[in-house]
Amino acid sequence: MAKILMKGNEAIGEGAVRAGCRYFFGYPITPQSELPHYLAKRMPEVGGLYLQAESEVASINMVFGAAGAGARVMTSSSGPGISLMQEGISYLAGAELPCVIVNMIRGGPGLGNIAPAQSDYFQATKGGGHGDYRLIVLAPASVQEIIDLMQDAFDLSDKYRNPVMLMGDGVLGQMMEPVEIGAERKAELPEKPWAATGRLKGKEKKLINSLYIVPENCEAHNLKLDKKYSGIKEAEQRWEEYRTEGAEMVLVAFGTSARICKSVVDICREEGLPVGLLRPITLWPFPEKGINGLIESVKSFLTVEMNMGQMIEDVKLSANGKKPVFFYGRAGGMIPVARDIYNEVKKILNGGAA
Amino acid sequence: MAKILMKGNEAIGEGAVRAGCRYFFGYPITPQSELPHYLAKRMPEVGGLYLQAESEVASINMVFGAAGAGARVMTSSSGPGISLMQEGISYLAGAELPCVIVNMIRGGPGLGNIAPAQSDYFQATKGGGHGDYRLIVLAPASVQEIIDLMQDAFDLSDKYRNPVMLMGDGVLGQMMEPVEIGAERKAELPEKPWAATGRLKGKEKKLINSLYIVPENCEAHNLKLDKKYSGIKEAEQRWEEYRTEGAEMVLVAFGTSARICKSVVDICREEGLPVGLLRPITLWPFPEKGINGLIESVKSFLTVEMNMGQMIEDVKLSANGKKPVFFYGRAGGMIPVARDIYNEVKKILNGGAA
Amino acid sequence: MPRVTFREDRCKGCELCKNFCPKGLVVMADHINAMGFHPAAVVEIEKCTGCATCAMMCPDMVIEVEKEDKKVG
Amino acid sequence: MPRVTFREDRCKGCELCKNFCPKGLVVMADHINAMGFHPAAVVEIEKCTGCATCAMMCPDMVIEVEKEDKKVG
Amino acid sequence: MKKVFQRPKSLKDMPFHYCPGCTHGIAHRLVAEVIDELDIFEKTIAVAPVGCSVFCYEYFDCDAYQASHGRAPAVATGIKRVLSDRVVFTYQGDGDLAAIGTGEIVHAAARGENFTVIFINNAVYAMTGGQMAPTSLLGQKTTTTPFGRDHKLNGSPVRMSEMLSVLDGTAYAARVSLHNPANVTRARKAIKKAFEVQVAGLGFSMVEVLSACPTNWGLPPLKALKWLEDNMLVYYPLGEFKRPAEVI
Amino acid sequence: MKKVFQRPKSLKDMPFHYCPGCTHGIAHRLVAEVIDELDIFEKTIAVAPVGCSVFCYEYFDCDAYQASHGRAPAVATGIKRVLSDRVVFTYQGDGDLAAIGTGEIVHAAARGENFTVIFINNAVYAMTGGQMAPTSLLGQKTTTTPFGRDHKLNGSPVRMSEMLSVLDGTAYAARVSLHNPANVTRARKAIKKAFEVQVAGLGFSMVEVLSACPTNWGLPPLKALKWLEDNMLVYYPLGEFKRPAEVI
Amino acid sequence: MYEGILIAGFGGQGVLSTGQLLAYSGMVEGRHVAWIPSYGPEMRGGTANCGVTIADNPISSPVVSEPTVLITMNRPSLEKFEKVVVPGGIIFVNSSLVNIKAARSDVRAFYIPANDMAEEIGSGKVANNIILGALIELTGVVSTGAVEKSLYEVLPPHRHNMIPVNLKALEAGAGLAREQKGTLAEVG
Amino acid sequence: MYEGILIAGFGGQGVLSTGQLLAYSGMVEGRHVAWIPSYGPEMRGGTANCGVTIADNPISSPVVSEPTVLITMNRPSLEKFEKVVVPGGIIFVNSSLVNIKAARSDVRAFYIPANDMAEEIGSGKVANNIILGALIELTGVVSTGAVEKSLYEVLPPHRHNMIPVNLKALEAGAGLAREQKGTLAEVG
Ligand SMILES: Cc1ncc(C[n+]2csc(CCOP(=O)(O)OP(=O)(O)O)c2C)c(N)n1
Ligand SMILES: Cc1ncc(C[n+]2csc(CCOP(=O)(O)OP(=O)(O)O)c2C)c(N)n1
Ligand code: SF4
Ligand code: SF4
Ligand code: SF4
Ligand code: SF4
To answer: In 3-state terms, what secondary structure has residue E150?
Structure first.
């Protein structure tokens, strides 16, 4: 199949459609607007619905309704809008509803700007909403990977009855890259016997709910969720290793910054510096196993983020003091420059320990 | 001065009034309702304002307006309401506005229940909103401490021009305990030359803002904020140590669970078990220094939380792999029982390592 | 004669039925039920028209009303 | 004779002034300004009544209008 | 013997958790009666709010969703857009619908979402302990207006039915009251019409139900009904504010 | 020579970032002129929204706040409750005010908050790239209604001035347009009245300003004004919907 | 010394304020005290209850999940809470409204027709204080003097006229307890 | 091989689609390519620009912050971006609209009266392609054949009638470049 040139935001839309998603509820925000624009045209073609909500709060609650009704459904936004969705996300997780939420992160805090950033890592992975819950968080690094991960996003979401977040930024969303999307196939959708679709033919009553007024029941629910999360942690950690063979230092970076780190690794390797890259694809569950697999052989890690240092906590928790973990970051919508990272690598390799 | 019996939620209100807070904007939610009820009566007595907003989103933005105008101002809510405030909180942090936000945590996720919980620790300390920002988070463990910390909350908030969150739960909010509140004094309020109050007498223009459209400027702003946060981390870590002398195991717990852990420590000590308690009073900045001070002498830590394990990450990050960190938690509104924690302590002491 | 049945254990003693019975036939019992309320009951059932007003105003669906099934005309 | 001054560098060439000038005195220049627009200008200023309609419709406050300060009567 | 009054089938046979004299119970019954009468039980889906009626999902025996506070109209939108042949209704209090959920109700109406809203206006936030609602009357004492609601401080009550009737997407809007039998009968009729509008696919329908909260008004049940009649009816006129030509 | 038309003092002397022919610029000027005329510059505080006019805090030379999207009325409430003798106004687009900020505007009006709202209705979300707004007309093509807005799918446009006029707290509400000089003059009068209502302490005042967005309508500036006149005026009648007895 | 006292009844029976009076009295006597109500929607139309802890040491959790003393003002309260009383604890039953007996044999149950006695004294509202009087007499957790002092603090000034009848109720309860003290052991 | 090409001009000058055409052509030739526009409010009424990267290796950041080639379709673009071009890079200036010269001496500047030439060819809309033709001629980053193929993909079918005039523009630009190639060194 020939490649076509596609914008990241549109790839999210096309990936969703191909994964069988037929419902999108959202509210405009830069830098993800091409996604709603695309779906406003594309959904009607496949008998799906693009509905613009009055706000992000409404979007996420529309998603709640549609997900409860058994649909493959998604929404999309960026920083401020995602913050507004936190209550709804907590409800979705509490009621164990599958859906996909896209966050094309921009510079913050507050209104900040619309430039690419990764400063919503904590919000996505630790739970910006209230209560103990987890999102599965996916971080693609190319337009092709967006297409592929959209399918996984919906599948994981249905499999675990848990919201999945796909995180990117303006670079990924706005850029065009060649992609292979293949022929359109009918998506295989799982049965959802738990959906509340009416008691037609005297079906057993179904309830979509996150209220457990009796603490004992609420605790039991939390334990059940926790068990699910442990299962996900065990089964779903994903990462890419790039030239980590024999690496003494491993960069840890995701999404846009991982792309840049790859070229840093190439430069280093060309100069004979033993540097590799671990690129988390699932931010939650964080690829602890990836770190653990390297922990004996490497001498240090350098986390590179487009924020003031967030994922570094997970890298440190995984390394658990066994090897030093350094940080290099750019913030507020700035993109790290390969040369600067390279200099940082050299500095550390030249003994600027902890 | 004689002691009086006071409810935790009312103590928050009285503490705020005594700290010079004259503006409260909020939306009802259990289990903090006695606070608005109290202030609806109390504020008019001191020439202040209690205003009920149409939602938590509105509350936090009213706080934004009032804080920008130079007022000592607060709001209060619980889990779901605090989730709805995340965008506003990010804006407040971004615009560097001082204010106090109370979260009387309840069982979650979703609607959950109204029973006491500590499952919003991540949200408060890692940033539930978008972008790189931090709240100063205070966790009182008694009604007396509530009164005292309210003063600190407002003072810290003004000192650092940063929102401060006070976290409690239904137990702290609903319980009455004896407190000494002392005579009412005129609160000393700092000058706020940065407030935007109009250009009377041709004053220089003031702007309350979190928008930095140029990434370079936004990064500079982030670096400035980060420097402030580092300063806070250095200067403001607070904790209480209880019977940690010679302790081989130290419990780490805050708020309601810390009260219970105290009696666990007493039971242990009575039986000659070398157990102590470190009670974080600031959850952010987390009292790393407290952990570090004990790290050489203790053999292990046991984090006790009313959630599925959140603060434990900070304990682990502080311990940095030097000593094992165990976890005991109850969730969904359940309160840990001293006897169960005691059993856990014994189990670990008897060699159930890592 | 209509039949008016009260599900006494469900009655919360709010007295709405008593107040709205056009014939004034509903009284509150002296005893209290398990929930601690004085439950309602009908006296002089022979005066009852079976209008079901009591039932219609009962917020807790305590009351069921039956009537002879007589055809009109 | 009124004076109509255009701050050419601020003009975005939207032609609102030109369209609404009741005397049709505003034209768009052939050249472009630094922003890349053909700026507006007044021709036949002697026909200008100083009504300031052009200025009132200019979204970018490019236009200032002055008039002889003659007392009425 | 013929039953002239019995529990509607759409209501599960279990006691309500409501306070004595709380007219939430009457409203529940009326909705259930209408569902029975229109014979739509199997395809009906209820959306419960956060408020005293949060547990209504237990009582209505149909499939149900518990929505976050104020967002029932958004949740209902999501459901109905997926399951357009089902009958969907939300049941919301005045804190839920007229305060935090203002955006959601206005835009569900504006979009002409084809579901039905049962809006219980009891002039107070009941579940959380009797705070002022946007619908609380001027002068009304609540736990957050201890000196009575004052226009200068808190503004004036909102008339949601009138406000939503301004929107083209609103097909049916009526205000009814439960303070006496005649009005209960009228309320039932309005609720039926609202569901009929939905079944006919005509758009957004809402019935605002003036309802008593004896507990938070601090009044015994009968006095509460009287208070409703004497005070709420003055500010909140009853009647139909909007109805489609297609339905009488 | 006397200046019969010059830049108002309340506007900083810097170029606007708006597109050619965007009437945001006219609206800014009118507000500034009124501030100058009423001689309230020193005590005026502006609240900027999120939208094309987000940077209006740069242009209005008074103190200013940049509010989160839709929440300007809540921010203004906070400011005005602290500084009751200042003059506070928000400047909001239709996405900001009529979509995400519906709750905040409705309740600021209901509470009779004593500030002024300048509401720019350009029937589109401009800043984010021309998506449908709640105010977009039926049939209007936008980036999210590529086949034209359809009532069945997206409902019908909301008339905010009419809707807010239902509320007792609204003291003044008017709709004006900027499509020609006569209407610009009328717009200025309405804006002045709105500020006067605030200065007199009479409560919530709002002026809805029909405004052109040539860029996102895909029309050259003059055609955009014509489109406004031919289409928007039909659905959005101009006039005063509410005014206090005290002010003429 | 540690007493965890759970007081339960219908809303409106004054359960919460009785608990506060007890806590206040403990404070007056220099003890550590804590009071906590049940809260939230379970209040709706249902039962109300509160826990009071009076102790020599700082109080860890104020929630009285294993009471040493249980006061039940109505039947559902007895049914619900009887099982959580610590072995050897005391249950006070308002026998005016509760027509069943405590089932457990490892606790001491004490039946007081509190409403009837209160009516006799002249105010149905002081039923709780009758039981409180008995509790004090039996446990000595606080002194009558402390309760008297506390009444002035807990009651708003315009209710101070109620203090005499409250004291009378306390005394009546105490009297009954003295009388029955002997028989209690048998009940236990 | 790596080229980072920044194309900048007014909104409406077709800057973005020219970039896409270039990226497409690179893809057709089997290279790694990426295209990215500037986005957001800075678009409002102002300049538009996009970056195109064509390389043999995977592309790290698609943002062209240090272009090897800069195309400026208007004066503000030249003023803004001249400074970021890598030393030894090329700047194309649309001299129909830009009446100043590039100031740097460590880059090669090439002045093309693109609008004028386009009008001559018959469509003002193909000004960009004139410059594109020159770029291809000078850098060989893609082949003319690839561009021609790509035009069929990038233009919607109802615009395919525009392809001949586009090709003509490319050729005109290439011709001019060939002519001036020699003189360029001097300019640099
Ligand atoms: C986001 C959020 N805010 C606040 C609450 C607390 N809360 C629960 S019910 C309620 C209001 C209830 O009032 P109303 O909607 O009028 O219903 P009623 O109880 O009177 O029937 C509130 C504010 C919540 N659960 N979630
Ligand atoms: C919470 C949040 N959601 C969405 C956005 C993105 N956004 C910025 S401006 C805007 C709407 C602009 O439309 P409008 O208010 O009509 O103003 P205009 O640009 O048309 O003047 C949106 C949705 C945001 N910044 N914050
Ligand atoms: S059925 Fe009618 S007459 Fe009979 S008891 Fe009920 S209300 Fe009274
Ligand atoms: S109205 Fe203003 S900006 Fe538009 S052309 Fe005239 S002078 Fe220029
Ligand atoms: S609190 Fe009010 S609304 Fe709630 S159940 Fe009781 S009476 Fe009904
Ligand atoms: S996009 Fe529209 S509203 Fe925004 S500046 Fe341009 S013309 Fe004005």
So the answer is: coil
